[in-house]
Amino acid sequence: MIIVYTSDVSPDRPSRRAVLVLLAVTALSLTLELVFGVFGTVRRDGDGWTARDPVPLPEPREVSELSVEAAIAARRSRRDYADRALERRELGQLLWATQGVTDRRSGYRAAPSAGALYPLEVYVVVGSPGVEGLDSGVYRYRPAAHELDRGSAGDVQPALREAAADQASVEAAAVDIVLFGVDERTTGRYGERGSERYVPMEAGHAGENLCLQAEALGLATVPVGAFGDDRVRDIVGAPADQRPLYVFPVGARP
Ligand SMILES: Cc1cc2nc3c(=O)[nH]c(=O)nc-3n(C[C@H](O)[C@H](O)[C@H](O)COP(=O)(O)O)c2cc1C
């Protein structure tokens, strides 16, 4: 028996079947990408953060022309920035000073931590012009690998500015480095004292390192504490168990 398949669709228009197949393949691809990340380097951390395509950072330097004393004496809150992108080397150096691993054997970091439990997470909001070779968007620092995980794409600095009492410095900077605390990492051992004291204290340690490193690099930064916590968490895309503690706009000096 010969079955002749006839269709009323003209040969130069895609048949309904072809369109359905295309839609099904697209839906399947999107599902595989979103759920399993099969088409890129996508990692889902235990805390719900989804990261793709890690960005390596240049090795940090450990010498400077500026002494610690000179950096302390010169440090000021600087709220105006030049319209130039940061070099990736500069960003890597700032992140290393904030939370970088300084002892590979033990995993100890640049800033002290109660019980070496390291409850801080460091996010970088890259604006435009932000950092050479990096698209605008949100990134998260991975201290052990000294690299950045890419989060969401797109310039969220205007939204971050609005969340930070409309402070112009937040949008004018090349990047905003945002410190988050994960209380549970510390309260397991230290109870309420961990969340009430130790975690904010650690943000202070890390933040001062960042300020002094910016000074030594000839960059400008200001510690910003005025912002809406929930709004900042949403903008950055941080998991619900993380709370923002400090925002540091950083840029070149005008
Ligand atoms: C916890 C804390 C929160 C701050 N929040 C802001 C802020 O939201 N916006 C701002 O412009 N400066 C902020 N600052 C910076 C202070 O205004 C600044 O440190 C102070 O005026 C002293 O100046 P100096 O940092 O140049 O020594 C904050 C500083 C600290 C320590």
Main attributes of the structure:
alpha+beta; 2 domains; two-stranded antiparallel ribbon; 8 helices; 254 residues; 10 strands; eight-stranded antiparallel sheet; NADH Oxidase
Walk me through the structure.
- This protein is α+β, with helices and mostly antiparallel strands and 254 residues long.
- It has 2 domains: 1-38, no CATH class; 43-252, NADH Oxidase (3-Layer(aba) Sandwich).
- It is built from 8 helices and 10 strands.
- It has helices at 16-36, 68-74, 88-99, 157-163, 168-172, 184-190, 192-216, 229-236; strands at 42-44, 50-56, 101-103, 108-109, 120-126, 137-142, 147-153, 175-181, 219-221, 243-252.
- An 8-stranded antiparallel beta sheet has the order 1-2-7-6-5-8-10-9, with helices on both faces. Strands 3-4 form a two-stranded antiparallel sheet.
- A hairpin with a 4-residue loop joins strand 3 and strand 4.
- It is globular.
- Residues 1-11 and 33-40 have low confidence and may be disordered.
- It binds flavin mononucleotide.
- Flavin mononucleotide is lined by residues 76-77, 79, 167, 222-226.
Counted up, domains total 2
Span between termini: 83 Å
Number of strands: 10
Quick one: biggest sheet?
A: 8 strands, antiparallel
Uncertain ranges: 1-11, 33-40
- Would you state the CATH class of the largest domain? Alpha Beta
Counting helices, strands and paired strands, the structural category is alpha+beta
Q: Could you tell me the mean pLDDT?
A: 89
The proportion of residues in beta strands is 15-25%
CATH level 3 topology of the largest domain: NADH Oxidase
Give the radius of gyration.
Answer: 23 Å
Q: What hetero molecules are bound to the protein chains?
A: flavin mononucleotide
In CATH, the architecture of the largest domain is 3-Layer(aba) Sandwich
The geometry reads as globular
